[in-house]
Amino acid sequence: MKDDLFFMERAYEQALLGFKKEEIPVGAVVVYENEVISEAHNESITKTDPTSHAEIVAIRKAALKIGNYRLTNSKMFVTLEPCLMCCGALIHARFDKVVFSTQDKKSGAVVSNGNLLEANFINHYVQFQQGPMQKESSALLKKFFKIKRSRV
Question: 101 forms bridges with which residues in the sheet?
Fold first, then answer.
């Protein structure tokens, strides 16, 4: 059985692809029955679409692959703590669990702000945990924003 590190490494590879495209380097992988069924990175800049976060793109691909908008029995591995929008998508898609690498103190909505996945008004609870590759994911994001700031 594959472990969290294996799947997070795949998500990190996606983040690197986003970095090379000058997208905020976040990568996501959807795992269903212990197999990767979709993977994605942020595409908001490339697609001129504020909803094209790695999680959303991966969810769209996974739903098409299995032919269902409900992704029960699925887990998401993502390199950055999901935001409010992405938490909502995880809930509506009925994910079992999300594992994220590094916290997003500014916009994260799992543990950093709001604790959305534990809110008392939602109708489906997604388990969550902070997982492997925290240092690597954080370092990649810091490198990206340092480069962006140096160009201003």
Answer: none
30-70 per-position pLDDT tens digit: 999 999 999 999 999 999 999 999 999 999 999 999 999 99
Q: Is 23 a catalytic residue?
A: no
Rounded (10°) angle between helices 54-66 and 84-92: 20
Torsion 133-53-93-64 (CA) sign: negative
55, 81, 118, 136: which one is catalytic?
55
Q: What is the pTM of this model?
A: 0.95
Whether the Cβ atoms of residue 104 and residue 86 lie closer than 8 Å to each other: no
Apex 112 CA angle, 73 and 137, nearest 5: 70
Best CA proximity match to 7, nearest among 34, 26, 41:
34
